[in-house]
Amino acid sequence: MSIAAATNKFMLEELLTNCRKNLSKPRLDLIEKAFDFASIAHENDTRASNEPYITHPFAVANILATEIPFDDVSVVCGLLHDVVEDNAEYTSDSIKKHFGEDISIIVDGLTKIKNLFKGADINQGENYRKLLMSISKDVRVIIVKFADRLHNMRTIEYLNPDKRKRVAKETLELYAPLAHRFGLGKLKWELEDLAFKELNKQAYEDIKKKINSKRQEREKYIQKFSEPLIQKLNEQNYKFEISGRPKHLYSIYKKMIKRHKPFEEIYDLFAFRIIIDTDDSSQCYHTLGFINQIYLPVPDRFKDYVAIPKSNNYQSIHTTVVGPDGILVEVQIRTRKMHEIAEQGVAAHWKYKEGKVAPERTIDGYVGWIRELLENTGGEDLRKSIIDNFKLNLYSDEIYIFTPKGELRRLPQKATPIDFAFEIHSKVGFHCLGAKVNQRIVPIDTVLQSGDQVEILTSKNQKPNKSWLKFVVTQKAKSEIKKFLNREEEIFVIQGKELFEKKIKKLKLVFNSDEVNKLANNAKYDNSRQLYKEIAQGKVNLDELLTVQTEKDDKKVFDVNLEFETFQNYARTTGGSLVVDGESSQMLYSYSKCCNPIPGDPVVGFVTVGEGVKIHRKNCKNLISILEKEPEKIQTIQWPKIESSSFIVALTIRGSDSPGILHEITNTIVTYKNTNIKSVNIDSKHSGFAGFISLYVTDLEHLQRIIDRLKKLKGVSHVARLESVIN
Q1: What pLDDT, in 10s, does the model give residues 5-14?
Q2: Is 498 annotated as catalytic?
Q3: Of 14, 32, 85, 559, which is the active-site residue?
Q4: Which of 124, 211, 460, 677 has the fewest CB atoms within 10 Å, i.e. is most exposed?
Q5: Which CATH architecture has domain 647-721?
Q6: Between the CA of residue 650 and those of 405, 562, 567, what are the distances in Å?
Q7: Is 86 annotated in the active site?
């Protein structure tokens, strides 16, 4: 037998022995089959340490058989977790064919998780979403991943420095807090310390050295502190285990940073743990009483997680007392079952519930928050906020709030009455007007404290507003508020859009979506939705908005004043000499700017001093005052009557733009009495068109017929003679 074969046989025997010892009814033949399958798949692979690659899946499987004992499926997945990712010839289908669908799904989830963070920033929301979706399908995905990450961290020294930093950072920010959320306390502490060692080795070694230097002193103190407790518990015939241990290095480091104190000034460096071999939790409280009889308890440093477990099912009594020599000592009291759950979390629950409740039901408490997070975060919101919401669930400590009837609700720190209201029911949240905290009325943004009794005050007229999003912290509250605001906004948007479309239809204007957005931007709104919303709320004068926009567009299409000046000058030089009192005249005359007469218009003259005769149109409003004051200065004037002569006029025209509309307009003009067009200046705007046409007509009747024909064209909304300069 080769050395490799002998080594594999030794590893397999060790794994099978551990599975027999720690798992309930393991299928050893399935585990052996998976080991052989992985050995063949990885036979040509080596690790960064130059060891055969099979040593890694073996180590992962062994962790799952001893340190996080779950079930035989987890052990098999630990053996197979890298097969698909590292070997192109192996696929999820081949795993399914040999080991069944459940194992195939878990291995596929593990493969996806491994690929998520390859060369990517772990702060990408989409990566977090995929990770959470894999966990929600089967909790064993993350259990196997924890074992994989633990072994990788234990052997991290073989990686290159950059990769070590990245893996350690990922472990500290993601996997350690996630392990805590699944109740895997022992795993969390080791992951934190291993990552801390890599990320800040100097601080790690310094704290470790100082703790080790006081080892003998600490052991003596532990004995001194324990002796009276041991004597008291023996007197009560309790079966127990008592131990004192230094706190984990990373937790000490965090205390130093948080309190801004050196190591020497951190007094609560170690903790005592009393584990009672009983299922009777009342013995925990009796033990607490014994401790308080011997040592002075520290006020405000007592926490009862037995009566009120943490959301990860952690149970223990925590108290701090003044020990010998005035040293503060933290003591944890728990039963053996509580201890196993505190150390192994979801794995311990799986063990205790096996055979009584379907496995997927036993882990609902651990993955329920993940499912809720995925359900309450959707669309754009998912990509923007899932990281923050995920970390909120991972990192924040819990507070315990009670209803007036004494019902318990768990909320994250900094939660407010609004968060509490939505925790009760969405409708209660929507109509939350205020709250009574411990019988006192408080504002809705009050930060709640653990132990508060909260009564929500509601009103049918109350509804959420954007300001609520500034202080709520729970994902449920944020999601429900946003949904409500979006629904309300959508109603306004629809109403505003209807009003807008009704108005432009009345004005015979047409806007496409891009043009509406541009109109909104010109009016200082971010987009058309905001404009529509403001219209519905009566904050926009549509007539004024559209008038201003139309004037701007008309000026962009053509300069009306310039066109008219050019036109009228040309018209006056082509219409022949004026006839004064029936005779052609070469007298000095000028045209009044108040009415700008052109050939073909009925006109009269007004004799002035220095400027000769001023020519006005007969319907000029200024003529009324002139006739009243100086009627003797009015002269009869008309344009000359020349056979077959024509004179030039200008038309303004607007309408809906469509293919061929310009051809239809020009064809309509020229087909009537062979009317000659001098110039056309038309441009499209807002899915419509507007412009200026100059043409030759024989008389005003000719002109009116042209105007009438143009108005009958489909899409033409406005035709009028250009008569004066627009001010």
Answers
A1: 888 889 999 9
A2: no
A3: 85
A4: 460
A5: 2-Layer Sandwich (3.30)
A6: 83, 12, 7
A7: yes
